[in-house]
Amino acid sequence: MINIGILGLGTVGSGIIRIFNENSELIKKRIGDKINVKKVLVRDLHKNRDVEIDKNLLTTNPDDVLQDPEIDIVVEVIGGINPALDFVLKAIENKKHVVTANKEMMAKEGWEILTLARKKGVDVYYEASVAGGIPIIRPMKESLTANKIEEILGIINGTTNYILTKMAKEGKEYEDALREAQNLGYAEADPTSDVEGYDARYKLAILATLAFGTKVNVMDIYTEGITRVTKTDIKYAEELGYAIKLLAIGRQRKDGLELRVHPAFIEKNHPLAQVNDVFNGIFIKGNAIGEIMLYGRGAGQMPTASAVVADIIDIIRNIKAGTVNRVVSEYDDYIPVIDMNSIVSRYYIRIRVKDKPGVMASIAKVFGDHGVSLQSIIQKDTKGEEAEIVLFTHDIVEKSISDALVEVRLIPTVIKVESVIREIR
Amino acid sequence: MINIGILGLGTVGSGIIRIFNENSELIKKRIGDKINVKKVLVRDLHKNRDVEIDKNLLTTNPDDVLQDPEIDIVVEVIGGINPALDFVLKAIENKKHVVTANKEMMAKEGWEILTLARKKGVDVYYEASVAGGIPIIRPMKESLTANKIEEILGIINGTTNYILTKMAKEGKEYEDALREAQNLGYAEADPTSDVEGYDARYKLAILATLAFGTKVNVMDIYTEGITRVTKTDIKYAEELGYAIKLLAIGRQRKDGLELRVHPAFIEKNHPLAQVNDVFNGIFIKGNAIGEIMLYGRGAGQMPTASAVVADIIDIIRNIKAGTVNRVVSEYDDYIPVIDMNSIVSRYYIRIRVKDKPGVMASIAKVFGDHGVSLQSIIQKDTKGEEAEIVLFTHDIVEKSISDALVEVRLIPTVIKVESVIREIR
């Protein structure tokens, strides 16, 4: 019998207990042993729980989990840095294996955690930290090892994907779609971390570390959220044969890594363009495997708990096989991250202008002066004295677009540059 | 340094060598050791190879691989049962770990092979046997272990998916699409194994064993190929909001397993309906994880070799960690396979009739007598004296459809029951 201790009995913690309650026979058959939840750290002993659990297992004292010599595996499902990081480090110091679902902690402190774990001879698994139930960490560490990974494109935030899907399919504006997501529990009361792309940034940092074998500083990842995407942009995207998705992008180039999170135009026949609602999809290119995509529910109680329990089972298999640190995934390399100014893509640009003769010519001249050539131009009258110009460029370096837009904004007939969205292909 | 021996230097064997040639530094970094290809069994020493390989490594004597005490891992990429099975068993007897890409062997003899391997204390890995490079065996064995798997739906034969895609997108007839697939090397000169569904059957047997924890006899899997699917059926499918795909279906029911391979109607917004060309997709439902799909190239030299090399790396990690049989995946259970007569689905039925009054009434009466209720009816005049009737039923047990169709065929105004295709949802 293997004893585990769980830190946290929120949504994911309760999901873990539910899995043990419902699938215990099956799991016992798969590993030839019983998993025993010995202690669960909670904040409030008397709170009503929506899962069947023996109240005697609950404790408010972290040491009941972290210091119990009979507990082999500590499961951290509190989230955030404090106090989760302290608990995890203490568990490792006490030679306990750790399973965590904590993306922020793994993105920011993963290096230190994994290095300490290796030193102490324990395993730290974190499948649930990225894309919920979708197998992605383990495939990266074990299934794609024959490949040089060239690219990762991920829809790895379910909240923003839900919002963008609602905007696209039902013509909702951003605020209305956000409110709907909040009402359904898909977005939090303060949605900042999701809609500003921070959540996706943490996950990309974790994936890029594994894919490219490098340390990643989360602050090096250019991050732009979806708050400025409008239903008008989505409509134009559709006209042009695209969907707009919040993408996490990791690319290996000769001179370094492209790491960025931003809304992007992606062609409708790309498999990621079909990933809708709260679903996640991670598209990976390797130099042997070609293209694969892993698709599923990137969040939610049971999918996330599914990943946590799979990690617990994996560690139990290690324990029973008498092995530890079988797969090592921290590297000493540091591959530089490329400056956003030097990335190349096609750009969608929407500009509100005064409906005067010559406005298009002035804009086109500025772009031409900066070497930006235009693939398509749509001009529509909106109100009486205003018009809307939508440009779609050929491949061009970001710096030229930024420079051109500074000048475009100075043209007297230009009212506002409404949107600038990169294409990904 | 780990020595491996390879049996076979065909497409996949050459792909493995190519990966070692191209990604050796990367692999060395990942596992902290060098992989040395010590011997490669070939049929012809003097044949020109399209991959760079030292001719001194080649041998025509299997014992140079199977009996060499310095070889730790034997890689079998010959395919088929003879002589591959003999070689694999001999390798295991000689305490060598085995990596194989052989679906037929693993589907038919996997049980015996894995049991012997366990007895002898070696590992046998076979990720490449199903869906080429797509990680599926390892996710089944390690990532989904917290779940009761309820359903697998797979597009796991690239050849037939290519043919059906061409029929759908370019309105080609089956024979023309097959010929095109043959010209492109996607289909063999004798395409039987692909187009009759046998290849998919092997793969389903392997997946079902892992998913449901049971022995599977391949002959228990109902199998129907795509040779009778016409472009007319595909057109009607589209009218009704469906795609037609060759699906491998595994479902856990209270009374046993549904295991079947056949062309099926699948709704256009289902993720599998978007899996086109030679791509594969495997859709899995688990009671915790919900729905996931794994998508990628299900065949081809490099994707398949990618999976083989990942298995080699996994075994090397086991060797270096001093562990073996860490994950066991053979079970002693035998879950019965449910008779096709008892499955329930909706059916698409296309009937050619004489364009006479009362023909629809006679057909409808027969279906009504057998409890089959119709969801939609399309009747079209085709030629002067003939008409085409397309029926789409509500859920009904297969037995009732078969019985009804026996009687429908006896109606004098019925010329031919052209197609009967099950829906999957």
TrEMBL record, chains A, B:
The lineage of its organism: Bacteria, Bacillati, Bacillota, Clostridia, Thermoanaerobacterales. It is an enzyme of class 1 (oxidoreductase). It catalyses: L-homoserine + NADP(+) = L-aspartate 4-semialdehyde + NADPH + H(+). Residues 348-422 form the ACT domain. Its cofactor is a metal cation. InterPro entries: ACT-like_dom_sf, ACT_dom, Asp/hSer_DH_NAD-bd, HDH, HDH_cat, HDH_CS, NAD(P)-bd_dom_sf. Signal peptide: none annotated. This is Homoserine dehydrogenase. GO terms for biological process: methionine biosynthetic process; threonine biosynthetic process. Pathway: Amino-acid biosynthesis; L-methionine biosynthesis via de novo pathway; L-homoserine from L-aspartate: step 3/3; Amino-acid biosynthesis; L-threonine biosynthesis; L-threonine from L-aspartate: step 3/5. GO terms for molecular function: homoserine dehydrogenase activity; metal ion binding; NADP binding. PANTHER family: HOMOSERINE DEHYDROGENASE. The active site is at residue 203. Keywords: Amino-acid biosynthesis, Metal-binding, Methionine biosynthesis, NAD, NADP, Oxidoreductase, Sodium, Threonine biosynthesis. The keyword Oxidoreductase applies. L-homoserine binds at residue 188. Its EC number is 1.1.1.3.
